[in-house]
Specification:
By secondary structure, the protein is of the alpha+beta class. About 45% of the residues lie in helices and about 10% in strands. The chain has helices at about 5-15, 45-50, 55, 70-75, 85-95, 125-130, 145-160, 165-185, 190-200; strands spanning about 35, 40-45, 65, 100-105, 105-110, 120. Helix 4 (about 70-75) runs parallel beside helix 6 and helix 5 runs parallel beside helix 7. The chain is globular and about 40 Å long. This is ANK1 protein.
C-alpha cells in the first residue's frame, strides 16, 4: 500500500475519532525491523517482534484501526490476508480495544461508534466494502513469508481467550456486519435494482 494512501486513511480515521494533531499511531509493519547502519535495516526475529515498542504500545492504546487498500481488501475477501494483520487485530481483541476500518475516503467503526454517534465517517471505499462484506478467514491459510513467524503467530492465536476458531469467528462476523451497517446508511453501497426486486 503506498504510504500516501496509508496516511490519507489515517487522517480520515483521526478526524472520525476526533483525535488531536498530536495523536500517535504505531504502524506495526514499520516496527518489525531495526536500524543497523545508515539506510540499512535488519529484520527482527520472531521473539524480538513480540517485545517491540509497538507491541508494548498497544497496551496503552485507545483503539485499533485496520488501514485497507483495495488490493489488501481483496486478499481478505480471498481468505489470504497477512497473518501479521490478523495478529494485530488479535492483539486488539485480547485487550478489548475497539476496531475501526479506514480507507482513503472514509472510516467505519465496528464495536463502538465515533464521537458523533455515527458508525460511518466520510464515504468508505465501495470496492473495499464489497470485498469485506463476506469473509471466511482461516488463520492457517493466511499469508506469512517466514515459517518461524507463522508458527509463532498461530501459537499466539491459539493461546488467546477465544482460541483460533473463536477469534476467526469474531473477525468473520464483526467486519462484514460493520460494512453492511454502513451500507444501509449509504445507498451507493447497495445494489438498488436487486434490492427493489427483493422488496417488490
Amino acid at each position: 500500500m503506498p504510504l500516501t494512501e496509508m496516511f490519507d486513511a489515517i487522517e480520515w480515521h483521526a478526524e472520525a475519532r476526533s483525535l488531536s494533531d498530536r495523536a500517535t499511531y504505531y504502524i506495526d509493519a514499520f516496527c518489525r525491523v531495526a536500524a543497523e547502519t545508515g539506510a540499512h535495516f535488519v529484520r527482527l526475529d520472531s521473539g524480538e517482534i513480540l517485545n517491540t515498542d509497538a507491541q508494548k504500545a498497544m497496551h496503552h492504546s485507545s483503539g485499533f484501526v485496520l488501514v485497507l487498500s483495495r488490493k489488501t481488501a481483496k486478499k481478505w475477501k480471498d481468505g489470504t490476508p497477512s497473518l501479521w494483520m490478523l495478529f494485530e487485530a488479535f492483539g486488539a481483541q485480547e485487550l478489548n480495544l475497539g476496531w475501526d476500518l479506514a480507507s482513503t475516503t472514509g472510516a467505519l467503526a465496528t464495536m463502538r461508534p465515533f464521537d458523533n454517534g455515527c458508525w460511518a465517517f466520510g464515504a468508505f471505499d465501495f470496492e473495499i466494502a464489497h470485498s469485506l462484506s463476506n469473509l471466511a478467514i482461516q488463520a492457517d491459510k493466511c499469508t506469512c513469508s517466514h515459517d518461524m513467524d507463522r508458527k509463532m503467530l498461530l501459537h499466539q492465536l491459539g493461546a488467546g481467550k477465544l482460541g483460533i476458531a473463536g477469534f476467526e469467528s469474531r473477525v468473520n462476523t464483526t467486519i462484514p456486519s460493520s460494512v453492511l451497517g454502513a451500507a444501509l446508511l449509504n445507498v451507493t453501497y447497495l445494489d438498488t435494482e436487486s434490492l427493489s426486486c427483493m422488496v417488490g
